[in-house]
Fold each of these.
Amino acid sequence: MQPFSLSTIINHPCFTPILLPIRQKIIISIISAAFAGVATLIAYQCLVYLVAEQSVIWLYRTMLFFILGAILGGISLWLAHNAENQFAKQLQLALINKALHIPKHTLSKYNNHSLRRLLSEDVSELHYMVAHLPAELSVLCVVPIFSAGFLFYYLGAKAIWVLLPGIMASLYYLWMVPYINQRDGVGRMQTMKNMIDALNDYTRGVSINRIFGQDKGALENYRQSSDNFLYQMNLWIKKVVLPASFAVSLLQAVATFTIAYIIAKNLDMASLLGVIFFSLAVVTPALRLGHGLDYVITGRTAASRIITFLSLPNLPYGEQLLPKVSLSFNIKNLSFSLENRKIFHQLNYEFPRGEITILTGQSGVGKSSLLSILAGQEVPNSGEVYINKVAIYELSQEEQKKHILFIPQHHAVIASSIRDNMHLFVQTATDIQLLNALQKVHLNKDLNFPTHQLSGGEKQRLILAIVLLSTAQIILLDEPMSALDRQATNELLALLENFVKQHKKILIMITHDHSLIPKFSSHLHLSSYQSEGENSHE
Ligand SMILES: Nc1ncnc2c1ncn2[C@@H]1O[C@H](COP(=O)(O)OP(=O)(O)OP(=O)(O)O)[C@@H](O)[C@H]1O
């Protein structure tokens, strides 16, 4: 992806609401940085007078302006970092918020690794652009002008000769180095990406690689790509870093010193010192900025990824509220396609209250997709999901969450304690209530028990305990008993049936177990749209 330009990033509607609150701090930081630069230059001038007159008053003035420069520089840095922290926090919240509001299949295009990268690495890669770049640009505008002014004061028109090496070094640093960098940058970035990918593949796949005896191969991949990365970095140091540092030290410092000495040798010692100070000071802001330009390139790439994510369309939400009792739940003419492939077409069904509805159909037919649509987490192409005759997208997200408990097939249990997992769904339940629910599903574990040590069947029991505690009227479960044996399935189904009947809930459950079909009077069967042209229900 071609990174967006800086002006597109700053003016993008996703970024402006996050940048606006920190605008004031950034402006004050920019002004403080410029004044800090000027105060330091004045301190240099006082130093020249101190050398010339050797009086205490110039010593005090020199100290005063150096201290003033340091204080203003400190204020500038503090404000910029404070603003950047605020910016990073708001940006992370915006990203998390976006992840909660986009359709499920859009979110599934981002794996855990790329989501984590967006939230952590990409946000921190904007650090330089927010906390340093504005101040460095302002110093680059102000300090060279003042330095040149002082030089003209000492040398008149001849100052142009002493300025030349500084100007050339600055141009080399700000134009040539980024050009060379960019020319080789894509290859270098690719090598770095290969190495990170190899590392991620290795760490992510370590347990699977062990099963297939591929762990040595994965490690070898990582070793090769890190060797390649080292080779590329050494090449970059040879081609870019060394010539740049030679240019800066020889061209700027040595040439400036020589020219300044030749031109100003008739001046007194103090003025010669002034000439050298100010001609060296011309280039300092350019060096600082030049060093940061690398971060601007990576920052622009990170910002482009963030903007692309924040621009994804949200799920539709409304403001409607629902009554607490007597819910009806039905779908009307529901059709859904993914990547231009029709999954199901014109589905109609009324889900009865106080009963379990089972949802069946062969693998890949669209059962999980239908469940996501029923939960309001996916948008159908046409048709509606109605709760109490209100279309689901007219409800607010909070209202949907209040009335619907949706537990997808994967990722339903997070790696933490049993208590944490239960509190995710039922925040107000006491420990006694949690333990009661666990007891009903025959999961005899402590609330602090780590969930990564639970078996597949035990995780499903934990989910069912959560269902028993939930106050939601509509419960959507994706294969909740697939890891349980026949006896446990029958016991837990009986428990669920009672619970649903007693509390007049609507429970829809995907199953591949066809022996369960006769047990339930409400049954929605999805057939493949491609092979049969329509979906059926019983
Ligand atoms: N994020 C996605 N992007 C594109 N296609 C997808 C995505 N998720 C699922 N699909 C496709 O949509 C179709 C329906 O998938 P879905 O998971 O709803 O089927 P399912 O009936 O629940 O399958 P299973 O019983 O195997 O869990 C499948 O063919 C699947 O390949």
Note: Residues 531-536 have pLDDT under 50 and may be disordered.
Amino acid sequence: MRKINVFDTTLRDGEQSAGVNLNFQEKVEIAKQLERLGVDIIEAGFPASSQGDFASVQAIARTVKGSSVTGLARSIERDIDTAWEALKDSAEPRIHTFIATSPIHMQYKLRMTPEQVIEHAVASVKFAAAKFPHVQWSAEDASRTELPFLAKIIRAVIDAGATVINLPDTVGYTTPYEIGEMFQYVTKNVQNIDKAILSTHNHDDLGMAVANSLAAIQNGAGQVECTLNGIGERAGNASLEEIAVALQIRQDHYQAKTGLTLNEIKRTSALVSKLTGMVVPNNKAVVGANAFAHESGIHQDGVLKNKETYEIITPELVGVSSNRMVLGKHSGRHMFKEKLTELGFTGTDEQLQTIFVAFKELADKKKDITEDDLFSLMTEASVGVAVPHYELETLQVNYGTTNIPTATITMKNPNGETIQEAATGSGSVEAIYNTLERVIDAPIILTDYRIQSVSGGRDALAEVYVTVKYEELETSGRGTANDVLEASAKAYINAVNRTIDRKNYQEQQLNVINNV
Ligand SMILES: CC(=O)SCCNC(=O)CCNC(=O)[C@H](O)C(C)(C)COP(=O)(O)OP(=O)(O)OC[C@H]1O[C@@H](n2cnc3c(N)ncnc32)[C@H](O)[C@@H]1OP(=O)(O)O
Ligand SMILES: CC(C)C(=O)C(=O)O
């Protein structure tokens, strides 16, 4: 199987992302993690671009021993000299020098004729090769370069001492088919091509950077240039994690592999995201938060029966501890039962069905159902719900900073009649409790009221605990709802219902005693 060298340019092209500016320590930290990940080459920066970049490239060259370290330089002696100063202490000094070869870049940007570009390229490669044991040369905008000219300049720079030839799709313009043709053309038409390794470097302007990189590998590239999380100039570069995992999972197709320690991928991605401030989208392949999350019932059922039904990558492969089964409105009974069993549920199928119905209702209102939510539903199903002597039908609260809070409640009483009442209070909860007292038509004293959110986040469930003194009994009650006021009403009614249960039980006991 062919080994593909991974050239990571997170610290150079990745840092060219708009809004990203890594400091010295951050660059060194990322470089150390790239070394742990096992990348073959780290492009640490552009030493001639600033003092800061020079210092961090130098520090990385001195610190990192497990990966080769390189820096970018234009075809200018001053850039190459500066790169040498920054890189000379590295284990295997390596330079990356480049010049544009497409008609538009040569004419408008460089203002050089094609012959002048060849002269500059050859002179700079010779100059670099006199210092560096490894010289990488890039034909900037190769994908928009005329192929005969590309072949001509490549032959010349290899003769001048270049050992790696990189053919970038600088503006993310090419397609997998075209890049394949370009690599084939170069392989066939550059006589001395066997003296160099071909490299591919792709941008994502048309969303094809990874596909183009893989196509280049299939057509002869022995090195792939990429960044963590696909960050980079404009729409970014080809993403390292996607290429590495594609090569691993589709070895049958690509017949090529990298030397990366794949289970360092997630950690490296997270570090780069944190230090660059570039958030990884949830749906990003391989490293996104949802990459191993299953949400829908049919998928979850399949995964429970055999993971391979819906998982082509194991999370462990890339350093994610496990897949994630998200309970939500699309989940089905199989996953629900599995989750409840994990949480210690030992009830009957009937109880399970009751909780499942409550869960679906909740899931319609709430985006993420947490374990705490499930505990709460389980508890309500097994111990919390008293016989519904009084049942809440509707609750409406009118609150404003300039008016008196008023609650209007419709309820079923123990005789099955619907009663509507309204009352005011100094706050919304008091208005609700005053209204409930009217409906129940008995003096009820609230002796304790506690509120807590069952789960974190803005859409957390509210759980309210109350203790009421009613009919000389002090009884507690609990209510859970998305809304604090609804939970407060439910808790109060729950306490009243439980009091009635206790009273009924006491009466039954008395009857038994009297009959005896
Ligand atoms: C495709 C890529 O990603 S290439 C890398 C891009 N990265 C960067 O540019 C980041 C670092 N760059 C910088 O800090 C600055 O641009 C520097 C220090 C390199 C140069 O800054 P300045 O001297 O102010 O020049 P400026 O950036 O405005 O213009 C670039 C100059 O380099 C020339 N140039 C561009 N590429 C090359 C090259 N490969 N070889 C020689 N000259 C080049 C341009 O023609 C222009 O020259 P001119 O001043 O004679 O017109
Ligand atoms: C310097 C080269 C390799 C580059 O970054 C590009 O062409 O995108």
Note: The pocket of acetyl coenzyme *A (ligand 1) is lined by residues 13, 16, 46, 48-49, 74-76, 98-99, 109-110, 140, 170, 233 (CB under 6 Å).
